Automatic annotation (TrEMBL):
Function: Electrogenic sodium/bicarbonate cotransporter with a Na(+):HCO3(-) stoichiometry varying from 1:2 to 1:3. May regulate bicarbonate influx/efflux at the basolateral membrane of cells and regulate intracellular pH.
Major place of residence: membrane
Molecular function terms, GO-annotated: monoatomic anion transmembrane transporter activity; sodium:bicarbonate symporter activity; solute:inorganic anion antiporter activity
This protein's record includes keyword Transmembrane helix: yes
All residue ranges annotated as the Band 3 cytoplasmic domain in the record: 61-332
Positions of the Bicarbonate transporter-like transmembrane domain: 376-624
Name the UniProt record assigns to this protein: Electrogenic sodium bicarbonate cotransporter 1
Keyword annotations: Cell membrane, Ion transport, Membrane, Sodium, Sodium transport, Symport, Transmembrane, Transmembrane helix, Transport
Recorded superkingdom: Eukaryota
């Protein structure tokens, strides 16, 4: 077998490394060039990896820990925990007394390129069968020797270093960086010290069982039961001339003693030992791989990768999504707070469709009706029996005339029932049971007949109460990473609460002597709360706030990106006028034609086509909610980055042409004559 050696390709020293970095950046830019395919090779490979049919369950949550090699009093070396990840990064503060607040990890672009090189040049061992840390270390070291990446005489020293004790944040120690103590650490590599340590119990420093500190760690509450660990070990030693790099994925996650802060089995190990003088670079590379392991996409790739190229494609995909901040306009020492909601890596579909255009108006007589109902005491006459005579003493023509208001009431009940049903059954609630629109409407019709003969209020789906009922049954994750908001899992679908509500409603008829002692302001307060709570997030209310809000304090609403502010205010003004007219009409004796006026809003909406462009109306009066439309636009931008040709042709003023020639740069030319070198081009070039 031909042996490989770690060498600086294409030059040496700082100049050579700079030329290599330039070549790599040029290669990256060529892959994403406007003259080549819009879909990068990395993205195509990732789609193939993640798109394969696999009956295995979803990969578990990963806890990633970064341990660095430090020395105690210049003699003994230990692995010290310096950072940890679930979703966000937590660092051990400089004093070593506490953890920092969770924050978004900020990485240097250089560390990501260095990590890519490490994966490209180091040992990659996937689905390794091992049950203990000494066994893993032995197999990794032997693999490095077999491939020519490590000299055989270095085996004992590397093994001794990798099997040193691991001290976590729960333990305190006077540790100093190996770079700060200089040559005093050379005793670790001297023949006498090495022989003494290797013949002692150094291989037993790592126990095969969790210690007491691990079992008492309260951080376990933040992790799900099936969580696994990813351990990152980086450090500098004075006996290596070239970096020792290995990425290991165990076939089965196993407990490796006190290797991890919490007692969870380890699945991944990333090891980086290098020559002295580059401790900061090793630290940043360790942070880079730890951050990638906490990324949802790379996390799945790490579990499903079959070779080195899959991991490299995962890093390239991560680089495709990286946003670079100018160094002079941002302080890297600033820690970015975790966002309140994380964007999903999955493609989201439209939350719901087929909702009436004017449903937002109805939802907004309904919410306001609950607000104002507290000032309108909706009582019944005590001088009647249980059954109402259907004809009574009314003249015959009343029966015919009653058909007109009956039609209006039918329209109102149909709208109230169906719009509420659509809102409750929208996809964002993640309901598993099917929607019974026809069955619900049939039951409402039967109940209307019974209630009409008994003189009882008609039953329809109450919009505000139904939404409040759905919100009360929402389920969220019990465990969440530090800084991460609980994830919405769905709605607890059952009939118990609904049955209890209607039973209590029926019992309330016989509880009148008790209920009369409840102060009316209490009941009005309930209606007021439900009405105000339901208005939260309605675009109409958000636009009303904009009328009194300075420009610099206005939120980043999606319609403000595309519609001029004066047009937004005009649309809001027209809505306010319509709302006021409807409320005035409802408060008079002409309230019987209230459903007709709601239908008239359709004509008002049609008339708006002559005042506003379709572009403006698509953002001001679209069926997709504001928050979902914003997510849709962000995902649309991501699709452009990933090379959706259809999306580019629709949204770009200069559609992509397949006839544009692509740029191909031979690798041998780049290695011999880099583009940014100082040499002049030859005649052949």
């Amino acid at each position: 077998m031909q042996k490989k050696s770690w060498k600086q390709p294409n030059g040496c020293g700082e100049k050579g490394r700079e030329r290599n970095r330039t070549s790599l950046i040029i290669l990256q830019s060529v892959n994403r060039s406007i003259f080549t395919s819009a879909v990068s090779p990395a993205a195509e490979r990732i789609r193939f990896i993640l798109g394969e049919d696999d009956d295995s369950p979803a990969p578990p949550q990963l806890f990633t820990e970064l341990d660095e090699l430090l020395a105690v009093d210049g003699q003994e070396m230990e692995w010290k925990e310096t950072a940890r990840w679930i979703k966000f990064e937590e660092k051990v503060e400089q004093g070593g007394e506490r953890w920092s607040k969770p924050h978004v990890a900020t990485l240097s672009l250089h560390s990501l390129f260095e990590l890519r090189t490490c994966i490209e040049k180091g040992s990659i061992m996937l689905d390794l069968e091992a049950s203990s840390l000494p066994q893993v270390v032995e197999m990794v070291v032997d693999n490095q020797i077999e491939t020519g990446l490590l000299k055989p005489e270095m085996k004992d020293k590397v093994t001794y270093t990798l099997l040193r004790k691991h001290r976590h944040q729960t333990k305190k120690s006077n540790l100093r960086s190996l770079a700060d103590i200089g040559k005093t650490v050379s005793s670790a590599s001297s023949p006498a010290m090495t022989h003494r340590n290797l013949t002692s119990s150094s291989l037993n420093d790592i126990s095969d069982k969790p210690d007491k500190e691990q079992l008492k760690n309260k951080f376990m509450k933040k992790l799900p039961r099936d969580a696994e660990a990813s351990n990152v070990l980086v450090g500098e030693v004075d006996f290596l001339e070239a970096p020792f790099i290995a990425f290991v994925r165990l076939q089965q996650a196993v407990m490796l003693g006190a290797l991890t802060e919490v007692p969870v089995p380890t699945r991944f190990l990333f090891i980086l030992l290098g020559p002295k003088g580059k401790a900061k670079s090793y630290h940043e590379i360790g942070r880079a791989i730890a951050t990638l392991m906490s990324d949802e996409v790379f996390h799945d790739i790490a579990y499903k990768a079959k070779d080195r190229q899959d991991l490299i494609a995962g890093i390239d995909e991560f680089l495709d999504e990286v946003i670079v901040l100018p160094p002079g306009e941002w302080d890297p020492a600033i820690r970015i707070e975790p966002p309140k909601s994380l964007p999903s890596s999955d493609k989201r579909k439209n939350m719901y469709s087929g909702v009436f255009i004017w449903s937002r108006y109805v939802f907004c007589y309904v919410s306001l009706i609950f607000v104002f109902i507290s000032f309108s005491p909706k009582p019944t006459s005590p001088h009647r029996g249980w059954i109402i005579p259907p004809f009574g003493e009314n003249p015959w023509w009343v029966y015919l005339a009653a058909a007109i208001p009956a039609l209006l009431v039918t329209i109102l009940i149909f709208m109230d029932q169906q719009i509420t049903a659509v809102i409750v059954n929208r996809k964002e609630h993640k309901l598993k049971k099917g929607a019974g629109y026809h069955l619900d409407l049939f039951l409402v019709a039967v109940l209307m007949i019974i209630c009409s003969f008994m003189g009882l209020p008609w039953y329809v789906a109450a919009t505000v109460i139904s939404i409040a009922h759905i919100d009360s049954l929402k389920m969220e994750t019990e465990t969440s990473a530090p800084g991460e908001q609980p994830k919405f899992l769905g709605v607890r679908e059952q009939r118990v609460t609904g049955v209890i509500v209607f039973i209590l409603t029926g019992i309330s008829v016989f509880m009148a002597p008790i209920l009369k002692f409840i102060p009316m302001p209490v009941l009005y307060g309930v209606f007021l709360y439900m009405g105000v709570a339901s208005l939260n997030g309605v675009q109409f209310m958000d636009r009303l706030k904009l009328l009194l809000m300075p420009l610099k304090h206005q939120p980043d609403f999606i319609y403000l990106r595309h519609v001029p502010l004066r047009r937004v205010h005009l649309f809001t003004f027209l809505q306010v006028v319509c709302l006021a007219l409807l409320w005035i009409l409802k408060s008079t004796v002409a309230a019987i034609i209230f459903p007709v006026m709601i239908l008239a809003l359709v004509a008002v909406r049609k008339a708006m086509d002559y005042l506003f462009s379709q572009h403006d109306l698509s953002f001001l009066d679209d069926v997709i909610p504001e928050k979902d439309k914003k997510k849709k636009e962000d995902e649309k931008k991501k699709k452009k980055k990933k090379g959706s040709l259809d999306s580019d042709n629709e949204d770009s003023d200069c559609p992509y042409s397949e006839k544009v020639p692509s740029i191909k740069i031979p690798m041998d030319i780049m290695e011999q004559e880099p583009f940014l070198s100082d040499s002049k081009p030859s005649d052949s070039e």
